[in-house]
Amino acid sequence: MDKHKRRVRHGMVKERARILVVGGGYVGMYTALRLQRKLKGELRRGEAEITVVAPDPYMTYQPFLPEAAAGSISPRHVVVPLRRVLDRCRVLVGEAESVDHAHRTAAVTTLATEEEGRGAHRMPYDEIVLAPGSVSRTLPVPGLADHGIGFRTVEEAIGLRNHVIEQMDIASSTRDPALRDAALTFVFVGGGYAGVEALGELEDMARYAARSYHNIEPDDMKWILVEASGRVLPEVGEELGRRTVTELRRRNIDVRLRTRLESCADRVAVLSDGSRFPTRTVVWTAGVRPHPLLAATDLPRTGQGRLECTPQLTVEGAPHAWAAGDAAAVPDVTAGVPGRTCAPNAQHALRQARVLGDNIAHALRGEPLETYAHRSAGSVASLGFHRGVAQIRGRRLTGYPAWFVHRAYHLSRVPTVNRKARVLAEWMLSGLFQREIVSLGSLEHPRAEFERAAGGIPPQEPPRNPKGSS
User: For residue range 303-353, what is the model confidence (pLDDT) as tens digits?
Assistant: First the structure.
């Protein structure tokens, strides 16, 4: 009788079950949260332990990143502290470098690993949840690594906000027409949720910010969206995708479909249609790829690099291994089409996490597992203040109604009552007072001023906007 079977007796866990959750995003945090509720008694009696390994001590609610970049939400309200929410779990800030499931161990590095000089720690487990998420899918575009800006983390969102306002400061103060034109040209690559929402929110913010500049008009700025396929926002349907393009173009945003970014070297964006745009801002949101950790495991993967999973969220042919979210190819049992998998989006990730947590508890207690089945209720996207598109149970919404539904939906989904109340309060206050448009570029080099005073050389470059601007 194996160790797992020995733990189950009369529906109760008799030996300590070591559960390792890799990742602190949607799936990682919500699975751990579900487990600490379902296994409350076992955790209290010391019959189970849950360890969460995450690169950051917080979960980022990514649908709020565009609003954080636009200043509608404070950055600290976009993140959820893992230790506060997972108070009955052990949280390790670090990363899993590899997983040897045959021996039930994971190689984990933490913030102290380099200081200790001992290398990765081999962490044993009985059950493992692989939820490392995904990383940006980049292409070998010349200049992209030097000049591109991502949009997947709260740090990138706030950095992009500072950068956009800084470019307006540069354009306002320079006497060089070429530099001014490049500073006021903003190129976004990728027409999915991240690209369209980030562009919509930041263009809206910059248009508002232009009121504070005596020599910048909204029409002086060029906003360009580059999408390789023939449509944007495929999640909301073809018709709403066309309406989105129409709305963006109505705002004087240059939407270029079936077009690729071929180079951004020397701060010049070269497109596949032959266009060239001198620019100091290239935002890359052109898709994601599976996390590199998945390739460092002995678990089965699909041709796209995601873990092969069953409808019960177990990894195919690997007992005691579980996965969901971006890292997992979970069969969509509601599609009626063999081989179709669930889309790697937040809507599925949140629901999969609940079933995953329940199923691990069922497995430890020797109970039948549940099958994950969810039919999408719709999609929503924000295009700026009071602008949006939505498809809810077959109904299409645009403009203010869609924007309102977008906010209401994500307010209901953001974790913790504390976070909901803070976000709602910020939204209400933003309706009563003017937006705060200020760049805090010095946050990226907080020691630069002190190092100059001490006679040292600031790292990389001096603060680009040490006093801020408004």
Answer: 999 999 999 999 999 999 999 999 999 999 988 788 889 988 888 899 999
Question: pTM (2 decimals)?
Answer: 0.86
- Residue 376's Cα: distance from chain center in Å? 20
What are the chain's domains?
3-136+289-364 (3.50.50.60), 144-286+378-432 (3.50.50.100)
What gap in Å lies between CA 403 and CA 385, rounded to an integer?
8
Q: What is the pLDDT of residues 371-387, one digit of tens each?
A: 999 877 778 888 988 88
Which amino acid, one-letter code, is at 295?
A: A
CA separation for the pair 301, 328 (Å, rounded): 9
CA angle, residues 425, 430, 431, in degrees to nearest 5: 100
Q: Provide the token pair at 296.
A: 């460092």
